[in-house]
Amino acid sequence: MTQEKNEGKGNSVHPVIDNTTLINRSYVYEFASEAYCRDHGTTRKEIIGKPVSFIWGEANFKKYIKKNLDRCFAGNVVRYENWLEFPGQEPRYYRVSYSPYANPEGEITHAVIAYQDITELKNEADSLEKIETGFKTILRNMHYGVFTFDTEGRFTFVNDVVVKRSGYPRKWYAGKTLFDVVRPQERAKVEEHFKATVRGEQVLPYEFAYLRAENEVAWVHISTTPIREEGRIVGVLGVLFDVTKLTRSQQALKESEKKYRTLFEDSRDAIFITNSKGIHTDVNSAWSKLFGYTKEETQNLRAIDTYVNRDDCITYMKAIEEKGFVENFKTRLKKKDGMVMDCLLNGTPIKGPEGDIEGYQGIIRMAGEK
To answer: Quick check: is 308 in a domain?
Structure first.
């Protein structure tokens, strides 16, 4: 896949944990982290509700970003690294991940985006391939973790970054193996990758967790390659990048999604979502309590069947289509038992990739409530 945008506008100064966004199927921002807003010189208020092209530009959106989002909305986790150049700026290299987010019914409604500017890492990795002399001296001063092993996995060299980030003194590594560092539950996976590298196989970069000296769990993204002498593999070179903050950000995002669902369910307002045909696809507990339907009963319930005057439903949807929203729409709705209620409705459309309305989401309040 291809490029994403110059998020960092230079060095990676902001923690990856902050560099996340949430984008709906209409390619509109529903969440942007503080660091994301700061990187772009704007505020969360100015980004939320705006299309992705507002930040990235229409050309980049159409050429690169949209197809990645579409793959994500189709249920794929998309990860890639690539360069992107913007007018008046030097090209930057990014590591990006797109993760699909589904509602309780399994319908993918959003894409969770996390990114990091790794231009310096990329430049250094490219340079590493050209190094022949002064190998360990140069590696010791690298800005990312570098280590070497013998074919049994014993450490033969670690640079200062590894020592600093792991918390273990350099002498601690003497006689230790890679498998002494990783957590027991991940040892088999790491050993499998290591042995494949020793056999000379091409091993894709992977991630694993290990325990730092202070017994704190950390995550790294590691690339390995065999070290050869006269055509014979005598060891393994490993280059790692700490992704602890990114991993924690993804975990935090999952917690945020749980909290969002909790807020949806615990809201005192009756909230509903329908498809383009007006059939309910999701309702919260307040809606079920107000109307007297169970969640199962709403799965094939048409919104128009809850209106006393069915024309009001058509008017409500047309108003959303024309204005993009509806606020305090007055109508009379009926419960499952036939009881009539005077209500106020707020509503917004749910748009698809081509901008077509795929559904509606709204909030119902009893008239006179605040």
So the answer is: yes
